[in-house]
Design goal:
This protein is an alpha/beta fold. The chain has a single domain, classed as Rossmann fold. Helices cover about 25% and strands about 35% of the residues. The protein contains 7 helices and 11 strands. The chain is globular, with a radius of gyration of 17 Å. The protein starts with a strand and ends with a strand.
């Protein structure tokens, strides 16, 4: 057994103090890693099924090869790494606002180590995803006309439960339209949600994308074996 608790990093950011900790979890018989924003639990390496499903389900809806993928939100890196496992993916760009999170990957102190930083197909860019989505320069100021085959987003808990109120307008038709404009024909937008599917938000997606649906992601809670239902929303642009 390792030490019971270790705080690996603790750093103020513009949206609050973010911390990374590792602790021994006797119910699972192993160390687990957790990220917190203030007192709020953001993520854990115990619950990664839906983060991986975000990449798998979204990319399964994309045709073609030599795919260019954009990921909004780095976190522990599971979504980006799942995208890189698809042999059709040529490049993955990850947009992350918080410098400490990028630094954890560079230092290799997360469960995935420095896998993203050492993969030649991956690039991590510090920036505010929502600001860049609405910018005329897009996500790459050096190539404003860059379009993507898939855009994967995992930042807020859900379209209704936000980490920061500044992203609220993104989940309205006008904000989603800005994402649709950055997709290639037939490109796909995938959005992670911590909540079960919402008919209301699915209807909002359908106001922007000609093809849109919600994919429930179900898995067992390893602590009490109850069922957890989260969601990957998918919107596909016209081909």
């Amino acid at each position: 057994m390792s030490i019971l608790f270790e705080e690996l990093d603790y750093c103020p950011t513009e949206i609050g103090v973010i911390s990374l900790r590792r602790r021994w979890e006797p119910r699972l018989g192993k160390d687990i890693y957790e990220i917190k924003l203030g007192d709020e639990h953001l993520m854990s390496d115990v619950f990664t099924v839906s983060e991986i499903a975000l990449a798998d389900l979204t990319l399964s809806a994309v045709a073609g090869s030599n795919l260019r993928v954009l990921v909004g939100g780095l976190g522990m890196g599971y979504t980006a790494l799942a995208a890189l496992k698809d042999d059709r993916v040529a490049e993955v760009t990850v947009i992350e606002m918080l410098a400490p999170v990028i630094n954890w990957h560079q230092r290799g102190i997360l469960p995935v180590g420095d896998a993203l930083c050492t993969d030649s197909r991956a690039r991590i860019v510090q920036g505010d995803f929502f600001e860049l989505a609405s910018s005329p320069n897009g996500f790459d100021p050096d190539a404003a006309d860059n379009l993507y085959d898939a855009i994967l987003l995992d930042i807020d808990h859900s379209p209704e439960m936000l980490l920061d109120g500044r992203s609220r307008q993104f989940y309205e038709p006008a904000g989603l339209k800005q994402i649709a404009e950055k997709l290639r024909p037939g490109g796909v937008f995938g959005l992670w949600s911590n909540e079960p599917p919402s008919d209301g938000f699915t209807d909002t997606l359908r106001r922007v994308f000609p093809d849109a649906w919600a994919e429930p992601v179900c898995f067992r809670n390893p602590y009490d074996h109850s069922e957890i239902v989260q969601t990957v929303y998918i919107g596909r642009s016209a081909g």
